[in-house]
Amino acid sequence: MLARVSGKSAAMMVIAANLPDIDIVSWVGGTLTYLEVHRGIAHSLIAAPVLALILALLFRDRTWQSYLACLGGVFSHLLLDWTNIYGIRLLLPFSGRWLRLDITDVVDPWILLVFLLAVAAPGLAGLVSSEIGAKKSSGAKRGWAWVALVFLMTYEGGRFAAHQRALAVMGARLYNGKPANRLSAIPSRWTPFQWRGVAEGEGYVVDVPFDLNIEFDPSQGRIDYASPPNEAALKTRPFEVFSRFDQVPFWKIERLADDTSEVQLIDLRFGTPEQPGFVATAVIDASGVVRESKFGFGPLPVGNR
Questions:
Q1: Residue 199, φ and ψ in degrees, nearest 5
Q2: Mean pLDDT of 186-203
Q3: Do 26 and 141 fall into the same domain?
Q4: Are 137 and 217 members of one domain?
Q5: What is the distance between the alpha carbons of residues 271 and 198, in angstroms, rounded to a whole number?
Q6: What is the sign of the dihedral through the CA atoms of 59, 62, 68 and 74?
Q7: What confidence score (pLDDT) does residue 16 get?
């Protein structure tokens, strides 16, 4: 349909669907700047019509149909980002709240595979048609586009239902002998049936992977006891920025050999207390002064262990 509106519209929509990730350039400022900027204002509702307009002007296509194609592309990106565990700050600049559905991983191989098929299959069909001298048709492109759309809606709907079921199953159990204060179901990258349950209580978390096809047993999970938040570390920029991002926080303090302490703030969506993914780390001396603080995607070598 887009091709009949404008020869450029399909290409514009594809570019628009990736345009919010222009904020990836923040990586040149380091991991902390990237964390602070990525999925921020460029991924907000207020920026979407602006990004669509800029793209339409760059293509010198000022028809309202092409603008709507660009806008649809931008919104498709925001919707997909909303579904995964990383989340998105849709309401900036009015609110920095992270919104997320937690139904897919940050990178979902099945969505990528179907999108690649939808792009590649018509091209392969066109090569075959040219070899046998058949006329080119836009029907194959439209057909595969519909396949991708129907798959995406069905897949995301199934994952949403599975996530709700995972939370319900977890909510019917006790953890460390008590009901959890908060529950999180972290999706598996490969299947909607496997989840990582995180149950938060007073001063502890229970981390238990489970399969919806098998009876849930929270006693198989690992219990980790959290340390209280460290106010000195929170005043440093790495901890200040990361604490605004961290949606399932876990504090961990370990004594080091030289009478200092290593403080870690971990996001349990992306790792465990033993194997953290996103983590802010600080070294604090016996008087409570922060000697060093860092943020990184994985454990950071700081201090003297």
A1: -110, 120
A2: 96
A3: yes
A4: no
A5: 11
A6: positive
A7: 93
263 backbone dihedrals φ, ψ, rounded to 5°: -105, 130
pLDDT given for residue 304 in this prediction: 40
C-alpha to C-alpha distances, 118 to 9, 75, 144, nearest whole angstrom? 17, 19, 5
48, 78 contact by CB (below 8 A): yes
Average pLDDT over residues 240-268: 94
169: enclosing H helix or E strand? helix 139-171
Q: Which SS3 state, helix, strand or coil, does residue 29 take?
A: helix
Q: Could you tell me the pLDDT band of residue 2, with boundaries at 50, 70 and 90? A: very low
| Interatomic CA distance for residues 156 and 44, integer angstroms | 21
Domain assignment present for 165: no
For residue 159, tell me if it sits in a domain: no
Compute the distance between CA of residue 8 and CA of residue 175 in angstroms, rounded to an integer. 56
How far is C-alpha 16 from the chain's CA centre? Answer: 19
DSSP state at residue 134: P
Asked if residue 106 lies in contact with residue 85, where contact means CB atoms within 8 angstroms, the answer is: yes
Sign, Cα dihedral of 55, 100, 264, 222: negative
pLDDT over 90 percentage in the chain: 73
Provide the number of structural domains found in the chain: 3
Take residue 129 and report the two structure tokens written for it. Answer: 């048609």
Per-residue pLDDT tens digits for 142-182 = 777 788 889 999 999 999 999 999 999 999 999 988 999 99
Residue 135 and residue 44 in one domain? yes
Single-letter code of the amino acid located at 182: R
- Full domain range(s) for residue 27: 2-154
Helix 109-132 with 139-171: angle, nearest 10 deg: 160
Q: Are both 46 and 120 inside the same structural domain?
A: yes
pLDDT of residue 59: 86
- Burial letters 284-295, b for 16+ CB under 10 A, else e: beeeeebeebbb
Structure tokens at 187: 């999706």
Total-model pTM: 0.86
